[in-house]
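User: tokens in, sequence out, please.
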């Protein structure tokens, strides 16, 4: 597989946007990058590339939240998530391009729409604590979604929105879960023979742009109003989801 100049531009754009979102929020590489990449490559490769780029982005910022990691809580999500990854990988060859794009669009719309309403939900006092089994089920679902499309983040992130945790505690869960699950996703895809030579070439092209994006996102995270800026990013992702659904319905 060889890339044209336009395809390389889209590849780098997706990596830059994914890295920026990762640096800003601690998650979201695949959520931002995969909708761009599925326009120029098969969905399985786009999903695996999103996972690999997510891992490279997490490496840069994980040390910032190391102090806030509660290992018992993380294990409750990560262990079932690791079980779910090969299930998602097994399902991956059964998904065609149109269904994949619709699925990604639906995830973006539901997830981002929820986040745009979350401030209102928080003010009305709506919450859910859930138990150990619920946390494990969310982790398992996140693993399946990661195996399918590198989308490990939405389920645990939405679930954590209702938890009485500090921002550092939530980000610590997001990053440790995403790092572990996405790494397992890449490994699982490689073992399953789903990563062709073009994937590794794409990854080499994406890593520098991802690094730059993460640095820019971290810069913005530290200097701008976090809440308003996060909502701008979520609004943009919501628009991407709507456009994917409209184009592939």
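Assistant: Sequence out:
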């Amino acid at each position: 597989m060889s890339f044209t100049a336009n395809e390389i531009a889209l590849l780098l754009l997706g990596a830059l946007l994914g890295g920026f979102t990762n640096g800003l929020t601690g998650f979201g590489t695949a959520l931002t990058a995969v909708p761009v990449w599925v326009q120029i490559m098969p969905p399985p490769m786009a999903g695996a590339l999103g996972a690999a780029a997510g891992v490279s982005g997490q490496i840069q910022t994980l040390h910032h939240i190391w102090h806030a990691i509660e290992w018992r809580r993380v294990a409750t999500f990560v262990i079932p998530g690791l079980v779910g990854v090969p299930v998602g990988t097994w399902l991956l060859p059964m998904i065609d391009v149109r269904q994949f794009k619709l699925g990604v669009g639906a995830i973006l719309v539901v997830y981002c729409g929820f986040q745009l309403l979350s401030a209102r939900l928080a003010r009305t006092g709506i919450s859910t604590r859930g138990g150990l089994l619920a946390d494990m089920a969310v982790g398992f679902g996140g693993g399946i979604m990661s195996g399918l499309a590198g989308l490990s983040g939405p389920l645990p992130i939405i679930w954590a929105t209702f938890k009485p945790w500090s921002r550092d505690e939530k980000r610590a869960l997001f990053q440790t879960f995403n790092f572990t699950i996405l790494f397992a996703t890449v490994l699982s895809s490689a073992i399953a023979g789903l990563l062709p030579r073009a994937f590794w070439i794409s990854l080499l092209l994406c890593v520098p742009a991802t690094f730059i994006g993460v640095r820019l996102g971290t810069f913005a995270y530290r200097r701008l109003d976090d809440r308003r800026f996060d909502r701008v990013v979520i609004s943009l992702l919501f628009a991407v989801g709507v456009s994917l659904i409209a184009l592939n319905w």
